[in-house]
Amino acid sequence: MTRIEINLLPAELKRKRRGLTFDKNLALIAGVFGVVVVLVVAASVVQSMKLKSLDTQIAEAQRKVDQYKRNIELVDALIDVKDKLLQRMSAIESLDKNRTVWVRIMEDLSRRVPDYLWLSLVREEPRAAVADTSADSTASASPGSVVSKVTVEGYSYSLNSLASFIIQLMGSHYFKNMDLEYVKRAEIKQHKTFSFQLTGDLYYAPELESPQTDTAATDLASQRADSGFSDVSLAAEGE
C-alpha cells in the first residue's frame, strides 16, 4: 500500500523549516586563522629552542673564558717566576765571574782610606746607565775592562782626611774621574763629622793584576794634608 504525503503549508513556512546553511567564506577565514595560529606557535617554539641553545652556548663559552683566564694567570705567574729566576741567575753569574775582581777592588779601596775616615757605601750603578766616558778615561782602561759608574759615600772627622782620600784615589787602577759631589757637616753620637759623596768611573777586568800601592800618590796626599788643606780644615771646624 502506497503512502502519499502532501504538504499543505504556505511557502513562507516551508522556508523557515529548512536546515542551517554553512557559510563557505567563514570557514575559509577560520581555516586561515587556524593556520596563522599554528605558524605563530611553531615559530615561538623554534625561537624558544634557539634561545635555549644560545644560552647553553653562552654558558659554555663563559666557562671556557674562565678556564682560559685561570690558565693565563698561571702562565703570567710562571713567566714572572722565570724572569725573577733569570735575574737571580744573572746576578749570581756576574758575582761569580767578577768575584776575585771585587776582592782586589775592595783591597785597593781599603788601602787608600786614611785615618779618621770611614766608608758607609760603595755602590756600582747598572752598566746600562753608563752613557759615555771621556777620551782620557777610555784611554786609561785596559783591554777587556768593564766600565761602570760608582758612588762612594762615607764620613770623615776632618777635611784633611777627605782630601787625602781623594788624592790617593787618583793613583787607583780601578777608580777614575772621581768627583766630590758634596761634603756636609754631620753629627754621629755627639761627634762632629763631615759626610761626603764621591762619584766616578769604575774600571775592572778579570785579568787585571792586583795594583800595588801608589807611593807617589800617598806621599803627595800626605804633603797636601799637612800643608794646603790644613787651613781649609781649620776654617771649616771653626764655623
Topology (SSEs and partners):
Layout: H1 11-16, H2 24-97, H3 99-111, E1 117-124, H4 135-140, E2 146-156, H5 159-169, E3 175-188, E4 191-204, H6 215-226, H7 230-238
Antiparallel strand pairs: 1-2, 2-4, 3-4
Describe the protein's architecture and organization:
With 239 residues, the protein is α+β, with helices and mostly antiparallel strands. The protein has a domain at 99-238. It is built from 7 helices and 4 strands; from the N terminus they run αααβαβαββαα. It has helices at residues 11-16, 24-97, 99-111, 135-140, 159-169, 215-226, 230-238, and strands at residues 117-124, 146-156, 175-188, 191-204. A 4-stranded antiparallel beta sheet has the order 1-2-4-3. A hairpin with a 2-residue loop joins strand 3 (175-188) and strand 4. Helix 5 packs antiparallel against helix 6 (215-226). 15% of the residues are buried. Mean pLDDT is 75; it is low at 128-144, 206-218 and 220-239.
